Amino acid sequence: MTQIELRGIEKHFGAVQVIKDLNLTIADNEFIVLLGQSGCGKTTTLRAIAGLETIDEGDILIDSQPVQHIKAAHRDIAFVFQSFSLYPHMTVFENIAFPLRATRGNRADIEREVQAVAKTLQITHLLVKKPSALSGGDMQRVAIGRALVRRPKAMLMDEPIGALDAKLREEMRAEIKRLHIKQGSTTIYVTHDQVEAMSLADRIVVMHEGVLQQVGSPHEVYARPANMFVAQFVGSPVMNMSDVTVSEDAGHARVVVRGAPTSFDFPSNLTAQLAVAGAQNGNLTLGVRPEGVLVSREAREGFVPVEAHIIEPLGSHDIIDLKVGDQMLRARTKSGFVPRPGEAVWARIDPAQAHFFDSSTGTSFGIRL
Ligand SMILES: Nc1ncnc2c1ncn2[C@@H]1O[C@H](COP(=O)(O)OP(=O)(O)OP(=O)(O)O)[C@@H](O)[C@H]1O
């Protein structure tokens, strides 16, 4: 059982505040991913939990006990870094066994535990080798094995597969997930890669400039982004964002994209919901992911004329830039469905996939259609 709680964490480096009032509770066995751009304070947060960095304000609690006064070595937390930091003169077996030497004297116990971890990570055949004979992925497996072997209260991982090539990263991602399901330990994982975050996390914590933006399951963060930063950071290609005005007309809401000649049809309850949320024209941004832009070759009800502009065929699907007046809208369509550049087609925004944000604060109005 390991629960970790961060209460009102603040951290400065000189005059620069790198963590601002961070509050977060991580449940036992939970896999949490801290996601954000370089420099947003992820690593500093992880190091503070491990005891490698002090904090200026707030409390860090492990199983309800404040730990600020406890040194890193006594927090019983394992840390896996991007750089593998294996001991080059030791074999893989000795590297994994190393953390056990201080705590478990008995050779037979050490042998058994190293073998068990090696089996879990499928590296038994590497135990006699030296790190210099290993590939990048295997080195990182050994580093993870060394962290796991002492069965720490929690695992902290800082971009552990960031240095590997794309194919190996994908493989290691799957392995880390399998390992977590099998081994079950409270894990906090740092990355700037949203795909990695989505595929690994029970919950993603999105950070920006030291401020927590949203905590939620991958689905929540993707489908219900709390603000424009999260909306554009998660998902690829990025969410379309346009300034819009909304008016009511003959039982419909009409959404006009600034610079576009036509309006998109929305259900009439949009205007009522926007009014309740305090949204006002002139301060309204519409966000829609490319899969929320529907494209048709023929005129259909609710579809407006647009022009296919740039087409990126990606095999499983195509990404098409549609010209709507002087605005661009990216759509994701079935592969080969659309047209040549310059061809006139029809588009509609799926109201169920539309997001409305306050243009000045970026906050979502939480509209559900
Ligand atoms: N020891 C330090 N002294 C001064 N500034 C630091 C120190 N460590 C980090 N910083 C600064 O604090 C900010 C947050 O850094 P941090 O490493 O936590 O961010 P990050 O989100 O993990 O980014 P990255 O992925 O690049 O490591 C950055 O602006 C960084 O330059």
What features would you describe in this structure?
The chain is an alpha+beta fold. The protein folds into 2 domains: 4-233, P-loop containing nucleotide triphosphate hydrolases (Rossmann fold, 3-Layer(aba) Sandwich), CATH 3.40.50.300; 240-358, OB fold (Dihydrolipoamide Acetyltransferase, E2P) (Beta Barrel), CATH 2.40.50.140. It contains 9 helices and 20 strands. It has helices spanning 42-50, 92-101, 107-120, 136-148, 166-183, 194-200, 218-223, 228-233, 269-277, and strands at residues 4-13, 16-26, 31-35, 57-62, 65-66, 77-80, 154-158, 186-191, 203-208, 211-216, 240-249, 252-257, 263-267, 284-288, 293-296, 304-313, 317-324, 327-334, 344-349, 354-358. The strands form 4 sheets. Strands 6-7-8-3-9-10 form a 6-stranded mixed β-sheet, sandwiched between helices. Helix 2 (92-101) crosses helix 3 (107-120) and helix 2 packs parallel to helix 4. The radius of gyration is 25 Å and the shape is elongated. The two termini are 41 Å apart. The mean pLDDT is 92. Residues 13, 18, 36, 38-44, 192 line the site of adenosine-5'-triphosphate. Residues 4-234 form the ABC transporter domain.
Summarize the structure.
The chain is α+β, with helices and mostly antiparallel strands.
H/E series: EEEHEEEHHHEHEHEEHHEEEHEEEEEEE
List the ligand species: adenosine-5'-triphosphate
Number of helices: 9
Give the full name of the CATH homologous superfamily of the largest domain.
Answer: P-loop containing nucleotide triphosphate hydrolases
Radius of gyration, taken over Cα atoms and rounded to an integer in Å: 25 Å
Helix and strand content put the structural class at alpha+beta
Overall outline: elongated
Estimate percent helicity: 10-25%
> What is the percentage of strand-forming residues?
25-35%
- Major beta sheet summary: 6 strands, mixed
- Unreliable runs: none
CATH names the topology of the largest domain as: Rossmann fold
Overall CATH architecture of the largest domain: 3-Layer(aba) Sandwich
Strand tally is: 20
The residue-averaged pLDDT reads: 92
How many angstroms separate the termini?
41 Å
Return the domain count. 2
Strand arrangement, major sheet: 6-7-8-3-9-10
Q: What would CATH call the class of the largest domain?
A: Alpha Beta
InterPro entries: AAA+_ATPase, ABC_transporter-like_ATP-bd, ABC_transporter-like_CS, ABC_transpr_MalK-like, ABC_transpr_MalK/UgpC-like, Mo/tungstate-bd_C_term_dom, NA-bd_OB-fold, OB_MalK-like
GO molecular function, one term: ATP hydrolysis activity
Pfam family, one: OB_MalK
Domain ABC transporter: 4-234
